[in-house]
Amino acid sequence: MKLLTRTTLIFLLYASVVAGAGTLVYYGLIHKLYYAYVDRTLSRRKLRVQKAMRLYLHRPADLAYWHQLDHNVEFVPLPALPPRRADQLRVRLMHNELTGKSQPYRQLSSAVLFQGRPYELQIRVSLFDTQQLLLRIVLAGGLLFGLLVLGLFGLQFVLNRRLWQPFYALLEQLQRYKLNRNEPVTLPATSIREFQELQEAVQLLLRQNQHVYRQQKEFTENAAHEIQTPLAVLRTQLDLLVQAPGLTEEQAGHIEAIMGVTQRLTHLTKSLLLLAQLDNQLFFPAETVDVASILRTQLAHLQPQVAGRGITLEIDIAASVPLQIHRGLLEVLISNLLVNAIRHNVAQGHLLVRLTPEALTVENTGQEQSLQEAGLFHRFHKASDSSSEGVGLGLTLVQQICTNCGLPLRYSYVAPGRHRQQVLLL
Amino acid sequence: MKLLIVEDEPELAAGMSSYLRGQHYVCELATTFDQAQEMMLLYDYDCILLDLTLPGGDGLALLRELKAQRPEAGVIITSARNAVDDRIAGLHLGADDYLPKPFHLPELSARVAAIVRRRRYNGANLVSVGELQVDVAARVATLQGQPLNLTRTELNLLLLLLANQGRVISKGAIAEHLSGNDAEQFDTYETVYAHVKNLKRKLTEGGAPNYIRMVYGLGYRFDPDLA
């Protein structure tokens, strides 16, 4: 959930509780105030009625007559004088002849004596209009509350969005950030202290990471580079050693073993150097290269390996596929893809090489398990099926070259035991 | 034929000159920038093997200077820098070839031979042993005047062997020569065995003596004296 959504939601929840409860309290208050007012009016009227009873009314018929004139004043004869008590105020429903409906009234009941006979004096006020009024007042109050909440809500939303702007800008930059691109992170100016501190912390972290990364890269590069010269000496001395006349077969065996590991070491340092270079350098000078001809050359060269393992080779190569790319990189890419497909193939397996202007596809039989999760492109990753062959940098190089040259690389496990590497050329 | 080896690593320089002397080249050695500068401008060499990282300066500067004064000089850059840029800069400045370290001596010898041929016998770029003749420019090999039907790889292999006559060429060197320096390698040498076998068969079928000998499983040797 987004930060803004969450704070807005919490705010909205609180505001609606407050608005709802507020409206209720407001209603209760108005209600109480109004009843106090009505009750006071009724009490005053009672005093006036009592005064009139003393001065102007003479017969019981007068009481009935008054009721005829004013329905809101009624004298109900009582059988006996009730014990003295305070006036009663209550709400009662009465049938209204005009509207034909029951309507609520506020009624004051008081026991009075008229010419020695007890009566209950009932004075009423219709609450019908009042209730309507009350409803409207509360509605208006509720509306006001709602507007307030809505306004605050909008304000908070807009304000938050603007306030958090530097944060989101930073986040976006960090999401696009790549350690090997060495691009500076430019951050929008902000006057908010927390964001300033965050930006400073992030800048510091990135600088440190860059530094460590560069150091590591330089180390790899320098180490690989420094190994080249001793390796060159080793190789030349070995090349001279094999010229020695009178070598015994046993000696030759020892030399062969040393030559083998020297070869591997050479290949390893070359791969490391190339990787370091691919990390360092984003663009390699491109020329128009015919992918088809390079592919055919490499396949011809690998023919003995294919035949030696009894692999059925299926080739479907377009006549000519020109591509703007660095020739050396393309050669490494193709060679590594093919060697990988042969090396991890099974005996009597199948190898499909297809080149169209859109894509280069290499599909081979191999272990019966998708390699997606196996860290296929990790440095020094070795497949479980392989012997000691290879140094585990082949596919890493393939991936790195594809990234550098902007060629999408897709691995898919097309069928049980069938792996496909595809390089899109468009 | 005179070569100048510009190389500051003594063992490497010694190894290179030892091998190339055996191929009947006269080798002179320069170990610093200044020494190399002096020698390459004073004397005329058939081919200069130039290292790029030298005490006292950058080999590329040396190359620039050399090409300004002797544009016809043959130069092979032998560098451990192995950088794509260096290769391109070197070739752009007029170097004839670029051989990244570590290289095999037979490979170096083959590259030197190619440059010497190009400079000495421009036009008639022929290599011959007995009845065997290779027209390098036309990429055609003939035996007793009859063309041998060699594939591109077999011809490359033959040229490598001819450039290192009487020398043992290790399987690794052959594999690298055939597949290209940067190609992923197999630890087994099926490719080498297959191509050598085919070449041998084509040579003997054409009536040539058994020039190519396997030396204990280490590699192969082309023996012209057998003829």
TrEMBL record, chain A:
The protein, known as = histidine kinase
Q: Where is the signal peptide?
A: none
Give the E.C. number(s): 2.7.13.3
Name the CDD domains on file.
HisKA
Per UniProt, which keywords does this protein have?
A: Kinase, Membrane, Phosphoprotein, Transferase, Transmembrane, Transmembrane helix
| Organism this protein belongs to | Hymenobacter cellulosilyticus
User: Which segments cross the bilayer?
Assistant: 12-38, 133-159
Q: Which Pfam families match?
A: HATPase_c (PF02518), HisKA (PF00512)
PANTHER family, A to Z: SENSOR HISTIDINE KINASE TRCS (PTHR45436:SF5), SENSOR HISTIDINE KINASE YKOH (PTHR45436)
Extract one GO cellular component term from the record: plasma membrane
Which GO molecular-function terms appear in the entry?
Answer: phosphorelay sensor kinase activity
Keyword flag Lyase: no
What does it catalyze? ATP + protein L-histidine = ADP + protein N-phospho-L-histidine
User: Which residue intervals define the domain Histidine kinase in the entry?
Assistant: 222-401
UniProtKB/TrEMBL annotation, chain B:
Which Pfam family is one of those matched by this entry? Trans_reg_C
Sorted alphabetically, which keywords does the UniProt record give? DNA-binding, Phosphoprotein, Transcription, Transcription regulation, Two-component regulatory system
Write down the PROSITE patterns for this protein, in alphabetical order.
Answer: OMPR_PHOB, RESPONSE_REGULATORY
Residue ranges of every copy of the Response regulatory domain listed in the record = 2-116
Tell me which residues form the DNA-binding region.
124-224
Q: Which GO terms describe its biological process?
A: regulation of DNA-templated transcription
The record ties this protein, via SUPFAM superfamilies, to:
CheY-like
**Which SMART domains did the record assign?**
REC (SM00448), Trans_reg_C (SM00862)
One of the record's GO molecular function terms = phosphorelay response regulator activity
* Location of the OmpR/PhoB-type domain: 124-224
Source species, domain of life? Bacteria
GO terms for cellular component: cytosol; protein-DNA complex
4-aspartylphosphate PTM positions:
51
UniProt-recorded name of the protein: Response regulator transcription factor
What is the species listed in this Swiss-Prot or TrEMBL entry? Answer: Hymenobacter cellulosilyticus
